Amino acid sequence: MYFEFSDxxxxxxxxxxxxxxxxxxxxxxxxxxxxxxxxxxxxxxxIEELKPKARALGLWNLFRPHGxxxxxxxxxxPLCEIMGRSHIxxxxxxxxxxxxxxxEVFERYASDELKKRWLEPLxxxxxxSCFAMTEPAVASSDATNIESSIxxxxxxxxxxxxxxxxxxxxxxxxxxxxxxxxxxxxxxxxKQQSMIVVPMETPGVKIVRMLPVFGYDxxxxxxxxxxxxxxxxxxxxxxxxxxxxxxxxQGRLGPGRIHHCMRLIGVAERAQESMCKRVKSRVAFGKTxxxxxxxxxxxxxxxxxxxQARLLVLKAxxxxxxxxxxxxxxxxxxxxxxxxxxxxxxxxxxxxxxGGAGVSDDFELASHWANSRTLxxxxxxxxxxxxxxxxxxxxx
Length: 396
Hints:
By secondary structure, this protein is α+β, with helices and mostly antiparallel strands. Helix content is 50%, strand content 15%. The chain has helices at residues 7-35, 45-56, 73-84, 89-92, 99-109, 112-124, 245-281, 293-322, 329-354, 365-374, 382-395, and strands at 128-132, 149-153, 156-167, 174-182, 193-199, 205-210, 223-234, 283-284, 287-288. The strands form three sheets. A four-stranded antiparallel beta sheet has the order 2-3-7-6, with no helix packed on it. Strands 1-4-5 form a three-stranded mixed beta sheet. It has a two-stranded antiparallel ribbon with strand order 8-9.
């Protein structure tokens, strides 16, 4: 299967790549310096400086499929890969998780009033958001286990629950959460859950702690454990209606999963580049490391795996565009297993080639490894996707 991109997409690729080399990569050192400072939970100045420049060039909200200039999933894939090569890339272009998924939820399922209040500032990049689904007390890989409650009380809903891995909750700009909980525990299993919009300033919302990922607190974004205790929001903040939570989740997670996979291809590509540069510049036992047989085998294996993973991601994106997310569910599940595992293998080889420097923060490799490893769990663990793939294969 061969994918040919339009001139519009090729132009965006060219301009996006130029912006990354001119502005984003040179700014990474300032980003890391900020995240080690006492102000690390505040917005990063260098990122805020670059956002208007990206927006002025039309490199803004590229993920958004709606409207006359909207890109398909297939068209967005190579752009997402380019942005994913840097930790700070997606946010600079207002294409970072969980905001992209939340914006899609607001666009598809929210009332006009909620869109005006939350979608518009999110598209503008003036606020950020979080998605409160996973819970510490249950195995959230099976979302029917979720125990948080959403109870109607007159013109309001009362929300109680403890969530964790609520990405972005620690950001001072995070102003709204989309919360998943049970509205009717006696309903059929997949009709018990609902989603509701919760402004973070609502009384009863408390950030208990920020959770590190392999020692990285990932400030100023971070991942929070958040307590919702007798939180009251207006009844019109429910999305789509009671019992529609799973329906919304499937609509949200399909694009979210493929965006993660697209970015992971970029992570793997940058790790491969870093490894090649490193081994050509270092000498051991009388010759460059690039001349050593085992390293050459690692470079070749990484190239093969990256190309295979990219093609599968592009196929999944194409199927989402042409036959829909439901028909593409096997391919989406496959890439969600393949992409993080490929990225991890390529990163591991690159870390090995860098020696002691590879496990330090002098390069992006260690932090990329930590983030990529979490994506074997986030948006469904490997085991859940493997089970889905097996079921569909057996049915077929």
